[in-house]
Amino acid sequence: MQGEKVLELSEWDKLHEECGVFGIYAPEGRKVAKDIYYGLTALQHRGQEAAGISVTDTSGPMGNISTKKGMGLVSEVFSRNDIEKLSGNIGVGHVRYSTTGGSTIENAQPIAMNYVKGSLALVHNGNLINSKEIKEEQMYRGQAHYTSSDSEVLAYEIISERVRTSSVEEAVFNAAKKIKGGYAVIIMSPRKLVGIRDPKGLKPLCLGKRGESYVLASESAALTSINAEFLRDIEPGEIISITKNGVYSKHIEDDGKRAHCIFEYIYFARTDSRIDGISVYEARFNAGRALAKSGFVPTDIVAGVPDSGLIAAQGYAFESGIPFALAFHKNGYIGRSFIKPTDEERNAAVHMKLSVLKDVVRGKSITLIDDSIVRGNTMRQIIELLKAAGAGKVHVRISSPPFLYPCYYGTDVPSAGELIASRHSREDIKERINADSLEYLRIEDFKEMVGDLPLCKACFDNDYPIRR
Hints:
The protein has 17 helices and 24 strands. By secondary structure, the protein is α+β, with helices and mostly antiparallel strands.
């Protein structure tokens, strides 16, 4: 049944999250490196360029942090022997996709530092929109360097505050009052695990527990991977401190306005995660239903582009009554780009291979669902491949609105000049991708996806919740 041609889909025509973070504290003294390894593997979809783990022993000497990080997938960076050597009962881990800074080992996390009062290791998801100003101040003080990343700037700021304060929580609190942007950060000190989420709630962070151990992670799916119980989402602007005596919480004062990233539900998060009380699976299913209500065209089958369009396609099929069909076979052995030093080489090297199931699509009109159109090249290739395999008309439905504006908070939305919808009309895009019709999800349909959850949707409507 498999088609004769294989399409190589470049991941540069997709959006990417910057990274995933994970942290755990086992007060009973159990080694945690293996749990971090499994947690990072569950968060691998959030970043495939680099991975790292830092651990320490809360009963050992201050400042004795063990770190291992490298380029590649979690399974490639860490051997069984590496995990055994990372001996400690408290630790943090990170998977990275670069949005700021190059794809190099120097930018891999965790960031581990020693200073006059002790040590810390930090993992960070997101972007700071005022890092340049903070970095200039730090350079004047002799801390940061011109090449320091957002994450390093944040670490330097926490250390600067820690020298003047009585606890790492107070240092994090003071540093957080200075920074702006979207972020979820986990900090490991010699005796504590501290997590913080930006006041708008742009980046996700949740809390779990297994036995006596407490866990912080970007997504609930990472908790499930180590059989930890999901307790709750960290609230926007909340600083949470985990010690041998339990969990403590403090909030940053702000205007109270929330803006959760809609693209967590459209694409970034794992299907089995829940973020801020919303099931990612149900949000994507409901997006497909909304598409069917607003842009229905009778066709023979509904198909989704693996894997990003499959759940929305099921929702579209459910609402429209058109049969859902698997039109593609996806090769799970996916090439990656992390070893390539330049954007051009990475873009040429990263491929996701699909082949069309000819017997499924031959002679059929198709409603084709995907989560987004960024530059348009990939969708055009998919449609060409479907029609070469004998498909009739192909009507494209996208489970997000048109991308028009860049993101400044840690999502790799390119400049407006690279976004096809910012330069071309819908009719022009339809012609360019060779579709028979094209419809997008409407912004007002987000309510059907996530109810009344307050959202950041600036990449669609230019309404940025945090201004530079």
